[in-house]
């Protein structure tokens, strides 16, 4: 990659001179290497993608059932089934199609034009035509068009946050580096898609197109298979289970009916009706609506879901891998500590808003303090950054580190615009990676207020060891004094202490100049810089960092309470990452922090043995993030990954739940994700998890509700045939029960709000699927109860010699009303309807009332009496049906009551034992 070679060797190996490539040679290389653009892998066609949405077992059974229903004349039922199947399929197809467009957006991050030296002449060409060996020129504001080795630089700083996650622009140089240097530390290289934050330089292109760092990311993104969500797996598993079980039971009952003498054709029609009724054809539609309504609620809580099944994935998530910069932190460098006059001051306020105060301990410090004023004056004058307000929001221009100093000064009333105008810069010795310092010269007038300086003054800022090494004096107690070795030792100790707190430390100094000597030498252009930067006066230290978001610590604690582990994955240095992680509560005692290089040294087996102990990954690359996610998923964890940069996109797509930042996130990260946080707030993930858990709870509850109805119907028919050789329900009645009980009530159950304490429960085990033994037991219990109710009505009707039509009408109506009572049971599987409040879910009340009205129409309207073979029921008939049907609700309320008492007793026993 040329980073380990001297500049001359790079020129020689790439066959280029300082005059650049010739046009002829550039054309040859373009034919050899191809255009400098990202190429897509061969994709699945649109038709194949659409067809893939209908591959689940449940969908196949439903389509088959709809065809049979249509052939048997049940056209309405067939249309409903087909409509719900295709609606769900089309929604999934649209989401998948958009997600696969992510790689195309990578192209937009390459620079459309590049400035090169060809044939010894500076030219602007399309970046697509760059080739290895091209000599490119770059300056502040440019986006790097290709991977390149720097050959010249003038205070060049590159913002690589979109690629590496590094929060601070990287200072570049031309020195050769050791061959084992990690990619993020190759300070003599620039990479496609990153931006020049400061300075200028020239570089030789070393890689283009898919061979660049961005190209590797594009390759990763294009080949990663997005995992199926737990909900998709659960629905398929449930579909297979209920499909096989239904076919076996229906075939058995149909053959039994033929054995008892029922006509073969009637039993075939009945068997198909019972099969269609037993298979929950409304399930895809209800799940889709439930997810859709959950998505609407999540939007109000700043979470935008791109793939509907992913909503439920959040409810099962037990690990969140979060990027640091801009996700856990504000991505705004902020001065937090200032050391002046042997005092450490704390600076309040965060971000770029110039609002804050200075404190020593709990005591507020006046901004008129001469020591603070001279330090901040130097910070403003020796600075090229800017601070401005746009659309009621404070923004910066230039290097974030310099901007942090400008903001700190503004908090003390020293606004850069005013200071620059009042004391214009007369001279400058620019920053370089070798010097590690910057010096400017300004003339302070007699009206300098509390500043103890007048006349021509040089101000310097830079690395503490460099600034301190040039100082022979210190501004202390209002006077310029000699800098003693003891004082230097104290300052060095303070630098170490700030660094241990993960603060980026910068030292400042000044030097009063001889005005006549400066003017004389500066006019001739040969004024010696060493004269300016010697015998400097030390003015103080500043400590800055990218602070955590205020609400994140609380959010991480909520995640912990919910059984969710938070892991930080960042491109920043180990010390910085660990300090932030400790402050946020991510890194705890006995937890590990691994760097990318340390991770590389571990085998897969070794890493899988340690992965559960690691809470922080620092200095990592995209491949490392994928390895972390893969190891966690192999351990059985459901992994969510947050991020905002291009570097995060492959991991976002590989994770079970990719969560992108909506404000600071790149288009690539958004398209690769399953969900976008519209406020870039980690705390919004907690709200999304709550919604995800509630959605799955509701889906499970309305499936259990439907399961009890289907089990009840099969048991009623099976026992009636075996015991009395009677068909208690005809085919059209079975289909009607299925249509109205699996229609509106489940839709209403899908909007049930979260149970109290849902975020104090552990994440569900995705291996258990949608239906557990608990749900099967509940379905069998309620289904068995409904069957028992029906058999009581059956014997009661037979004793009174009711006609077969009236008997079937009684059982038909009983099942419908029993299921309406049952719908209220499944608002919650643990809380009583009376504690929840009957009218807190008005949608369910309306759904039940509508269903009851429809059933009454079928019983009492002559046209429907003929179609459904029903007869009117008397008041005495209702006196039997309603009390029996209500036992469905009463029995479940008793179970909830006694199970609640049992849980309380266990809790008390555990508390007393503890």
Automatic annotation (TrEMBL):
Keyword Protein transport: no
GO biological process: export from cell
Alphabetical UniProt keywords: ATP-binding, Cell membrane, Magnesium, Membrane, Metal-binding, Nucleotide-binding, Translocase, Transmembrane, Transmembrane helix
GO molecular function: ATP binding; ATP hydrolysis activity; metal ion binding; P-type calcium transporter activity
Pfam families: Cation_ATPase, Cation_ATPase_C, Cation_ATPase_N, E1-E2_ATPase
GO cellular component terms, A-Z: plasma membrane
Subcellular location: Cell membrane
Domain Cation-transporting P-type ATPase N-terminal: 1-74
Major localisation: membrane
Membrane disposition: Multi-pass membrane protein
Stored PROSITE patterns: ATPASE_E1_E2
TM ranges: 49-72, 78-97, 241-262, 268-293, 702-724, 730-751, 776-798, 804-824, 844-863, 878-898
SUPFAM superfamilies (UniProt xref): Calcium ATPase, transduction domain A, Calcium ATPase, transmembrane domain M, HAD-like, Metal cation-transporting ATPase, ATP-binding domain N
Name of the protein: Cation-transporting ATPase, E1-E2 family
Organism per entry: Methanosarcina barkeri 3
